[in-house]
Each structure stands twice: as structure tokens, then as C-alpha cells.
Amino acid sequence: MRCIAAPIFDAYGDPIAGLSISGPTFRTPQNATHEIGEIVSRPAHEVSRMLGGKVLSKV
To answer: Coil, strand, or helix at residue 29?
Structure first.
């Protein structure tokens, strides 16, 4: 199993939750983790903004 996650931030830039995707390693190969991480980060950043959060890091 492999899990790739991205934080969801509050208005102070503190992580308050996370968004993740999990799957067997043959469907989430090590060489695809960066690409999958970018895909997971986009909606996590969107949720942060919707909640008034401050995203401190960029994908």
C-alpha cells in the first residue's frame, strides 16, 4: 500500500486536515508519487482557500 497526502490549512497557515489517496503499490508506483502529489495538492489547496485558509507552500 502507498498513501500520498496534502495538507489543508487554516487562516493562520496551520495544517488542520489532510486530503489523501491510497492504493496498492502496483497502482501507485514510486516514480509517480510526485505527479500524484500534485494532483492531490490542487483540491487540498482549493479546500484551504474555501475555508479561508492560507496556503504557505506551492506545488
So the answer is: coil
